[in-house]
Design goal:
11 strands, globular, about 700 residues, alpha/beta, 26 helices, nine-stranded mixed β-sheet, single chain
Length: about 700
């Protein structure tokens, strides 16, 4: 077991990395690189307190979805607990959302439906199935009937629980999530607190499933999946990607974001060990891919096709993984475990827990999850704070080198004849003027280039919105008739709109961002070449190459670390907006507004005209220009950095130094001695800073 890669070990390692990063931040605060507390004078510098708060509040959320009987409970028992902790699944109608997280002791907290939510269920239960307008409406009625029927166990006490939460002992979990549990009818969600260190800062979300007929549960599921770092969808290998699986993908996965979804093909041992037509892992993957292609073609869903074309498919046996983790003595005492153990040993020709674990392929899935988590969390949680800390250290290094340059320049000036000092003063005035002119040209050139990018980007986005609106109108005219409710086409309209925001416009903005970065980098690189020539001409004794390289690296790091597309309110609010939020605001949540224009008392023709006019308004009113202009305002920060580096920090201090020397002509000897002492102190500090930066760079390699 010791050489086995399991997920609990990975989560423990993640906790250790957080602690290591915190130690780095503490060391940086001790060195004076970053402030211990956030201050108004250091808004652009992460403080130790902010890094600590981010690490403590950060939550790793893993969503698990899949239809009933696909083996989710067994998978979670193997994936997280390595023990048979969770009971078998209940029915789709009564399944509650379950959240597994850390607690100092084993306990559960159940959240019950509110009085209003329960009243809604009773109203639905009173409806005959014949009233259902479509399959979703029928599911709502069936679910309500099942919930109300099962609620008879609570009798008159039911009202006392509604709208409340209830803590209970861990061994009573089945009463809230089991098919015949006492509280199953009114339980909306259950949080399972488990005293394992690796669950600190972690939420494992076991979702009710698909097309949830209970609206309040479905909304809660959407909330979790939207913030999930990784979503695992479990398929049953004996019947992979059937109509139910397609519904799960359509309803849930497309809301999770590209790059966050993995698909586990559970119970792969069933087709693998089939005597009549056995399939190896690759054949199983190929079969599922073929089924996915069929499903995509049948539903004609661009979003679905897009997501599934890149999703990784991993055959796995959760049962084998669980058996490998459970002590052998327990297996022999449990008839079901013993039977399964012997069956797998016979099918795969194995005899040890280690072999059972290897054949389960749980490590393949675990490693895929880890890779996605590192991708999602690594940049934000570790790389950015580390880059900020190192940037602060490099800033101190640059300040030290600048002070050394100034003091060495002062020593040189104090040892010069007055005529040479005046000659140096004249050169500084000329290079100041020429650099300022180059910086002005850089700004004008960037403004022109960015304006062109915005113009082209705006046209492209408008064209995409027009095409999307055209497809929405085609759906309305082709698939909506006077005999159908708008709900019959609402999912397809919503899907088209979601695709526009989360795929098409998002990619356009990403392309624009990259083009903007390339334009800016190319422009400043050209400027740096010209600036280096000027410095070599007018300040031949100055190490211009190292100076320019350090400024260039800093600007590139700032550009790579901060997306040009970032939307921020006032600093006090500290609220960040992603491009998807901005586009949603531009489009005013249009698809959700469609229902509002449908009048119940209007004729079909009148409703059709209103809906078409509403879609036309989306196309007509869409204008991303203000947001594009705002996004590329970050380019001004690049110009400011260049001006500060060359004019404010380099040339002007040298000019001020000469003026100071002019006023102290009679104190050259004492000024020279003071300058030499200051230089010696700065040289000592330089060695210390270099040692500190080398130390931090070594630590960084272990964390990122």
């Amino acid at each position: 077991m010791s050489d086995r890669t399991n997920f609990s070990q990975y989560l423990n390692n993640l906790q250790e990395k957080k602690q290591a990063l915190l130690q780095v931040a503490k060391r940086a605060a001790e060195y004076g690189w970053i402030p211990k507390e956030r201050t108004t004078s250091a808004k652009d510098t992460l403080s130790l307190a902010e890094i600590r708060e981010k690490l403590e509040k950060d939550t790793l959320t893993i969503g698990v979805i899949g239809q009933m009987k696909c083996g989710k409970s067994t998978f979670l028992n193997a994936f997280i607990f390595e023990n048979d902790v969770l009971p078998a699944a209940t029915t789709p109608m009564t399944a509650a959302l379950s959240v597994i997280t850390y607690g100092e002791k084993e306990r559960i907290v159940a959240e019950f439906y509110t009085a209003d939510e329960w009243a809604e269920q009773k109203m639905q239960a009173a409806r005959p199935l014949e009233e259902a307008v479509d399959s979703l409406d029928e599911s709502k009625i069936k679910a309500a009937k099942e919930l109300v029927e099962k609620s008879s166990r609570l009798g008159a006490s039911l009202q006392n629980y509604l709208g409340k939460t209830q803590e209970d002992s861990f061994d009573q979990l089945i009463e809230y999530v089991g098919a015949d549990g006492k509280f199953i009818s009114i339980t909306k969600s259950v949080t399972i607190y488990y005293p394992k260190e690796y669950l600190k800062g972690v939420e494992i979300v076991d979702t009710p499933g698909f097309n949830d007929p209970i609206v309040s549960r479905e909304e809660r599921t959407k909330e979790f999946l939207k913030k999930a770092d990784v979503v695992l969808m479990m398929l049953y290998a004996g019947r992979p990607f059937d109509a139910t699986d397609r519904d799960i993908i359509f309803k849930n996965v497309r809301q999770c974001g590209i790059g966050k979804v993995l698909i586990g093909i559970n119970k792969y041992d069933i087709p693998y060990c089939c005597e009549s037509n056995p399939e190896d892992e690759q054949q199983i993957r190929d079969y599922v891919k073929a089924e996915i292609r069929k499903a995509c073609k049948a539903c004609q869903d661009n979003t679905l096709t897009e997501i599934l074309s890149t999703v990784e498919l991993i055959p796995v046996s959760a049962e084998m993984a669980l058996l490998a983790a459970i002590p052998t003595s327990r297996i022999s005492e449990n008839e079901a475990f013993d039977f399964a153990w012997k069956r797998h040993c016979s099918n795969f020709g194995i005899s040890t827990a280690q072999e059972m674990h290897q054949w389960s392929h749980i490590d393949d899935l675990t490693n895929a999850v880890k890779e996605l988590i590192d991708k999602e969390k690594g940049q934000i949680l570790f790389a950015k704070p580390l880059n900020a800390i190192l940037a602060a250290g490099n800033k101190i290094k640059a300040e030290n080198e600048n002070e050394l340059h100034l003091i060495n320049n002062k020593i040189e000036l104090l040892q010069m004849p007055d005529s040479e000092v005046e000659e140096r003063e004249d050169k500084l005035a000329r290079v100041h003027k020429k650099l300022q002119k180059k910086i002005n040209s850089l700004g004008e050139g960037l403004n022109e280039n960015i304006r062109n990018l915005i113009r082209i980007g705006k046209q492209d986005m408008e064209d995409e919105v027009d095409r999307s609106c055209k497809r929405m109108k085609e759906i309305i005219h082709r698939d909506w008739s006077r005999f159908k409710s708008f709900d019959s086409i609402r999912p397809r309209i919503d899907n088209e709109f979601q695709f526009l925001i989360t795929r098409t416009l998002k990619r356009k903005t990403e392309e624009l961002t990259e083009q903007g970065k390339r334009v800016i980098k190319k422009s400043i690189n050209t400027f740096f070449q010209d600036a280096e020539s000027l410095l070599m001409q007018y300040l031949p004794d100055f190490d211009s190459k190292d100076f320019i390289e350090s400024i260039q690296n800093k600007i590139h790091l700032d550009m790579d670390d901060n997306d040009l597309f970032s939307f921020k309110e006032d600093d006090d609010n500290d609220t960040n907006y992603g491009w998807g939020d901005v586009i949603w605001e531009v489009l005013n949540g249009a698809s959700w507004g469609l229902l509002g224009v449908i009048g119940n008392i209007l004729s079909y023709d009148e409703n059709l005209a209103k809906v078409e006019d509403f879609i036309n308004s989306i196309s007509r009113d869409f204008d991303p220009s203000p947001y594009l202009d705002h996004a590329f305002m970050r380019k001004d920060a690049v110009i400011d950095s260049v001006k500060e580096a060359f004019i404010t920090d380099l040339i002007e201090p040298l000019q001020e130094q000469i003026e100071d020397i002019h006023t102290k002509r009679n104190q050259k000897e004492s000024e020279l001695k003071n300058a030499q002492r200051e230089r010696d102190a700065l040289e000592t500090q330089k060695g210390l800073i270099r040692t500190q930066i080398d130390e931090m760079n070594q630590i960084k390699t272990t964390l990122v």
